[in-house]
């Protein structure tokens, strides 16, 4: 296989993965708290013999996500929460503690505050939050303090990671360095943070990736035809 074909195949594989990233962003354009992904390409340079052109090969090096805040959708839901500014809600999941901006919460049969997947929402001390069964009204103010029937009861944990984040599932993140409670959080009750995906930009990117892939495929076909003609010419010499 020629160097040109090998390099182009690596690029094609990266473009396919980037297309999957864009498709996943579009699929989550209406997912509460979703943060859009971006593919990052890297370039590999290989030394060659003196006088020969160096080999440059591009490939998908990794992913990055955009933590820009999404728009707010006001629902009026008593347990719908959104964070304004920095911070994440802390969750206790079967895979360990995770962070999220998706604040569509509810109560379990045991009265524990949970998310859509049944993960427990944690307070600033890392403990689950349990609401009394006889509670009639739940109010949550800007600093996350929970009042049950007019009486202070607990607090929603709004935390900041110590170090970099890694994406786990679509709306959950891993903080390998741990996390700490934010001193002055801004929690909004009755609202949900929407996805920060811009569908128009994602569709434009999808078209760009598709065209780049088609151009690469055309190059591979032409190179394959050139090599075939060369082999045929050598055989007939």
Major sheet size, sense and barrel closure: 7 strands, antiparallel
Number of strands: 18
Order of helices and strands: HEEEEEEEEEEEEEEEEEEH
How many structural domains can be distinguished in the coordinates?
Answer: 2
Tally of helical runs:
2
User: Helix share of residues?
Assistant: 25-40%
On the 0 to 100 scale, the average pLDDT is 86
The whole-angstrom Rg is 25 Å
> pLDDT below 50 for ≥5 consecutive residues: which ranges?
none
Keywords summarizing the entry:
alpha+beta, elongated, three-stranded antiparallel beta sheet, 237 residues
Walk me through the topology:
Blueprint: H1 3-27, E1 37-46, E2 55-65, E3 72-74, E4 81-83, E5 88-93, E6 96-100, E7 106-107, E8 113-114, E9 120-121, E10 138-140, E11 145-148, E12 151-155, E13 158-161, E14 166-167, E15 172-174, E16 179-181, E17 187-189, E18 191-193, H2 199-235
Antiparallel strand pairs: 1-2, 3-18, 4-17, 5-6, 5-9, 5-13, 6-15, 7-8, 10-11, 11-12, 13-16, 14-15
What does this structure look like?
By secondary structure, this protein is an alpha+beta fold. The protein has two domains: 105 residues, no CATH class; 122 residues, no CATH class. It has two helices and 18 strands. Strands 5, 6, 9, 13, 14, 15 and 16 form a seven-stranded antiparallel β-sheet that branches. It has a three-stranded antiparallel β-sheet with strand order 10-11-12, with no helix packed on it. The chain has a two-stranded antiparallel ribbon with strand order 1-2. A hairpin with a 2-residue loop joins strand 5 and strand 6. Helix 1 packs antiparallel against helix 2. The radius of gyration is 25 Å and the shape is elongated.
